[in-house]
Amino acid sequence: MRKKVVFITSVWEWWPKTLYRDLVNLLNEKYPEYEYSLVSSAKEWIKLHFLNNKYDLIISSIPFFWKPPKCDYIIQQHWLYKNDRWFTSIPKLLAWFYPYNTFFSKIVLYPSEFLKKYYNSKHRNQKVILNFSSFPIIKNEIKSLENKNEINLLTIFRADIYNKARWILDLYEKLKLFKPNKKINYKVAWFWKYYEEMKKSFDSSKLDKNINIKWIGWLDKDWVIEEVNKCDIFLYSTFYETFWIILLEVLSLWKPILLNNYESYYWLYDEEFISKDNKEFINKLSKLINNDEYYNQYFSKVSKNLERFDKNTIINEWYQLIKEQI
C-alpha cells in the first residue's frame, strides 16, 4: 500500500487552501509513489487529534492542540501569528498554538526567509519552500505604455482583517502625489468585512482629475485572470501580508508590479519592484507609463525574478522533503 500524506488547511477558500489544492493535484500527478490528499474540515481536524488510521504524514497550516497520533507531523507557518492571535475568534485563539506546535513538529516549514526570521524558532530542522502560482507563465509580447492614451491600474486587496484592509489607504496617499498626463483607469477589488469602510476613506475627489477609480465588490479566479490580463500595472501595499500569491499570479501573467517598502518583499522580489517612499513609488509609476527604455528594463527583472518560483522545481522540493520525512 502507498503511504498517505495529507495537507490540512482552513475551511475558507483562497489562501493557503488554493496552494495546498494545487500542490496535492500536482504531487499526485508527478510523484504517485505516495497518495496525497487535502483536508479542509473542522470536524476532520478535531478527529485527527484522537484517531488517525489514514495518514502517515500530516502537513498542516492549522496548529493542533497536541501531536496527532500514529503519524509524522509537520507544521507550515504562513502568517505573522503574533499579530493574528487574540481571544475573539477560533482562528485568533489557534494562532497562540503555532510556537507550541514546533515542539512536536518533525520539521518546521516556512514559505519565505522573512517568516523564518520572524518566528526565530530554535527548532533544529527548519526549511523554506517558496510558494508557487498555478497560473501558467505567459510571456506576452512586451508593449510599452508610452503610446497608450489610457492606462489601466489594478489593486486586489484583503478586506477580511482590518490591518490587511487598511493598507489600501497607503496607496491612496501615494496616488495623491500622482499627476498623470494620461487618463488613468484604476480598479480596486475585493470584498469582506472592511471593504465599505476602506472605500469610504478613499476620497477620489482629492486625486488628480485624470484618475478614475472603480471599486469591484466581488471577485473569483476567472475574474482575477481576466482583469490582470487587462491591466497595465498592478499596485500593492502592505505591512501585514507575508507571501500573498496574487503578486506571483500577476508576474506569471507578465505584468509589472509596484510595491511599498516592506521587509518581506526584499526576500522575494527584485528591489526595482519596491519603492522606499511615496515619492519613489510615483516616480517609478510615471517611468513605467512614460519611459519605454525603463519599461523594457523592468521586464527583464520580471523574467529573472520568476525563475525563483519555478513550479516544477518547487514541487520537486516538496516531494524530496516528503520522501525524507515519511
Written account of the structure:
With 326 residues, the chain is an alpha/beta fold. Helix content is 38%, strand content 16%. It contains 15 helices and eleven strands. The protein has helices at 17-30, 42-47, 81-84, 90-94, 98-101, 113-119, 162-165, 168-175, 195-201, 221-230, 246-252, 263-266, 278-290, 292-306, 311-325, and strands at 4-8, 35-39, 57-60, 72-76, 107-110, 126-128, 150-156, 183-189, 211-216, 233-236, 257-259. The strands form two sheets. Strands 2-1-3-4-5-6 form a six-stranded parallel sheet. It is globular, with a radius of gyration of 21 Å. The chain starts with a strand and ends with a helix.
Short key terms for the protein model shown above:
six-stranded parallel sheet; globular; 15 helices; alpha/beta; 16% strand; single chain; 326 residues; 11 strands
How do the strands and helices of this protein lay out in sequence?
Layout: E1 4-8, H1 17-30, E2 35-39, H2 42-47, E3 57-60, E4 72-76, H3 81-84, H4 90-94, H5 98-101, E5 107-110, H6 113-119, E6 126-128, E7 150-156, H7 162-165, H8 168-175, E8 183-189, H9 195-201, E9 211-216, H10 221-230, E10 233-236, H11 246-252, E11 257-259, H12 263-266, H13 278-290, H14 292-306, H15 311-325
Parallel strand pairs: 1-2, 1-3, 3-4, 4-5, 5-6, 7-8, 7-10, 8-9, 10-11
Helix pairs in contact: 13-14
